[in-house]
Amino acid sequence: MTLLQIKAQIDNLGAYKQKKIEDYGKMEKDLFDKIRNKLMYQSEADLRLENFKKEAETHSNNEYSSIIRKIEEFEKSELESIKAEYETVTADDVAELNLLASMNVSEKELLEYLDKYKRNPLAIKKLHAIGSDNDIALPSYTFKEDRLASILQIFKQYAKTYHNAPIIDSYGSASDLAFTLVLAEDETTTILEEYTNHFDTALGLS
User: Fold this and answer.
1) What are the two backbone dihedrals, phi and then psi, of residue 5, each rounded to the nearest 5 degrees?
2) Long-range interactions of 168-176: CB distance < 8 A, separation 24+
3) 173 vs 29: CA distance, rounded Å
4) Would 18 disulfide with which of 65, 71, 177, 206, CB 3.0-4.6 Å?
5) CB neighbour list of residue 176: distance below 8 Å, 6 or more residues apart
6) Are 54 and 101 in contact (CB under 8 A)?
7) How confident is residue 172, by pLDDT bands cut at 50, 70 and 90?
């Protein structure tokens, strides 16, 4: 399971709910015409609408539960992978950073070291301390696990929005979903690209 696959399942849930809301409205209009033309009893129309609504809501419930479960499973495994991507501080690194701390360094030099140690959070922390000692404000560092948590929270929010959209379109929920789907595509595409290239964007230098 990947973030892209989870995103696709969330997108599909949103598209499904939008279609079912629209289909419910069309069915309601068609059944109303049949009742008016005395081709169907009100009770039969109500039963058909209720069955349609229940089927759509059952599917939505199942998909939403599946999405949340996959997000939680992915988070657990991905956090382990992230740990393996970080580099540890070696004795040579400590010596280099201590030497750097004893010198007058420029912002340009520190930015070069930030890029060099972009996979090493402890070294990044030390470089920020050196920058502070030299009155140099360095770009903040985004941890990959924090970026992951942000992405998964956004995924959960969109999934919840789609899941909670009512089948009976009393307040324009179909058009709201269509708008949300467009916004979600733009936002999630951007954050997934940043995550994929995390160590090139963690410092906000590119």
Assistant:
1) -70, -40
2) 168/21, 168/24, 168/53, 169/21, 169/22, 169/24, 169/25, 173/21, 174/18, 174/21, 174/22, 174/25
3) 17
4) 177
5) 165
6) no
7) confident
In degrees and rounded to multiples of 5, residue 136 shows phi and psi of -115, 120
pLDDT of the residue at 171: 76
**2: left (phi > 0), else alpha (psi -120 to 50), else beta?**
beta
- Retrieve residue 39's tokens: 């081709």
Query: Over 90: is that where the pLDDT of 188 sits?
Result: yes
Q: What is the DSSP letter of 204?
A: S
Q: How far apart are CA 191 and CA 195, in angstroms?
A: 6
Nearest to 145 by CA among 80, 58, 70: 80
CA-CA distance, 132 to 110, in Å (whole number)? 11
Q: How far apart are CA 178 and CA 158, in angstroms?
A: 12
Tally Cβ neighbours within 10 Å of residue 202. 23
Q: For 92-142, write each residue's pLDDT tens digit.
A: 999 999 999 999 999 999 999 999 999 999 999 999 999 999 999 998 888
